[in-house]
Design a protein that fits this description.
This protein is α+β, with helices and mostly antiparallel strands. It contains nine helices and twelve strands. It has one domain: Spore Coat Polysaccharide Biosynthesis Protein SpsA, Chain A (Alpha-Beta Complex), CATH 3.90.550. The chain has a seven-stranded mixed sheet with strand order 3-4-2-1-5-8-7, sandwiched between helices. Strands 6, 9, 10, 11 and 12 form a five-stranded antiparallel sheet that branches.
Length: about 250
C-alpha cells in the first residue's frame, strides 16, 4: 500500500514543551525499521499552542502550525479543523487519517511496521477511529479526517479563548480529564464494529504492557513521569499527570 497522504502524524505540543520534550519523539520517527513507510517532514504536523500569531512553518524533520488558543489535549485536533485552508495554502496535503499523539511520547523502532497492519484494517473496514486501548487512551489514536469534521462541534466546544489565563487552562485540563476519549466514545460505527468483530481483529491498537515508577525522562526537565509502554504498536507515553489532582502539572 502507498501510504502517501493516507495517514499523517498530528502532535499536540506547547510553547514551553517544544524545546524540552519534542526532540525525543521526533528523533524516534527517524529511527524506524520500516522499509515501506519512509517518514518525511510533511508526514508530521506539530501544533504549538498559546502563540501570538497563527502561522505555518516547514522544518527539516516536521512541520509546525502555531495557534493562539490552548485547549490542552484537544488543541491539535481543533487546529486541523479550524485551519485546514491555511494548511492547504501552505502546500500541506491533508491525509485521510491522522494519528494523534502528545509530544510526551516516543516511538519504538518497530512502530511503523506494526502500524501498517492497522492502516490496512482502517481501509478494509472503513473505520472512523482506532483508539490506543480499549479503555482510557488519552485521546491517542487514529482519526479519519472526515470524521473529525463531522464531529467538529464536540471538540470546538472545548476550545479555549486565545492566549487564555492559567486559571482557564487548569479548568480545561480538568474538563479534558473528564472527557477523555470523547471522540472515540462518539464513534457509533466503531461501537457497532465491536459487536461482530472476531477476537483476532482488535478494534483498538493495543493494551498497555507495563508502567514504570515515576522517573526523570527529559534532560531539560526535573518533573518525574511514569513511562507507559504499549507493545502491540511499540509506543511509549510519558505522563506527569497519572492520577487525579486538584492542580495539574502543565510545565514541561
Amino acid at each position: 500500500m502507498d501510504y502517501s497522504n493516507k495517514i499523517k502524524f498530528l502532535i499536540n505540543s506547547t510553547k514551553k514543551n517544544i524545546d524540552v520534550v519534542l526532540e525525543k519523539l521526533i528523533t524516534s520517527f527517524y529511527e524506524q525499521n520500516s522499509q515501506n513507510f519512509i517518514i518525511k517532514n510533511t508526514d508530521i504536523l506539530v501544533v504549538v499552542n498559546d502563540c501570538d500569531e497563527i502561522s505555518f512553518k516547514k522544518c527539516d524533520k516536521y512541520c509546525i502550525l502555531y495557534v493562539k488558543h490552548n485547549s490542552i489535549d484537544f488543541t491539535a485536533l481543533i487546529a486541523v479543523i479550524e485551519h485546514i485552508y491555511s494548511l492547504i495554502d501552505n502546500d500541506f496535503e491533508i491525509p485521510d487519517y491522522w494519528f494523534y499523539m502528545h509530544d510526551t511520547c516516543k516511538l519504538g523502532s518497530n512502530f511503523l511496521n506494526l502500524l501498517e497492519t492497522y492502516i490496512e484494517k482502517l481501509y478494509n473496514y472503513n473505520l472512523n477511529t482506532l483508539s490506543l486501548t480499549y479503555v482510557k487512551s488519552m485521546n491517542i489514536g487514529i482519526y479519519k479526517y472526515n470524521y473529525l469534521l463531522n464531529k467538529k462541534n464536540i471538540v470546538l466546544n472545548l476550545r479555549s479563548q486565545d492566549n487564555p489565563p492559567m486559571s482557564q487552562i487548569q479548568e480545561l485540563k480538568k474538563v479534558g480529564v473528564a472527557l477523555e476519549d470523547i471522540l472515540f466514545k462518539n464513534d457509533d460505527y466503531r461501537l457497532h464494529f465491536l459487536d461482530y468483530i472476531n477476537s483476532m481483529m482488535y478494534p483498538h491498537l493495543h493494551d498497555r504492557t507495563y508502567v514504570s515508577e515515576p522517573k526523570n525522562i527529559y534532560e531539560k526537565s526535573d518533573i518525574k513521569r511514569i513511562e507507559e509502554y504499549f507493545a502491540n504498536i511499540d509506543f511509549y507515553k510519558y505522563k506527569a499527570n497519572w492520577e487525579l489532582k486538584k492542580e495539574y502539572i502543565l510545565d514541561p
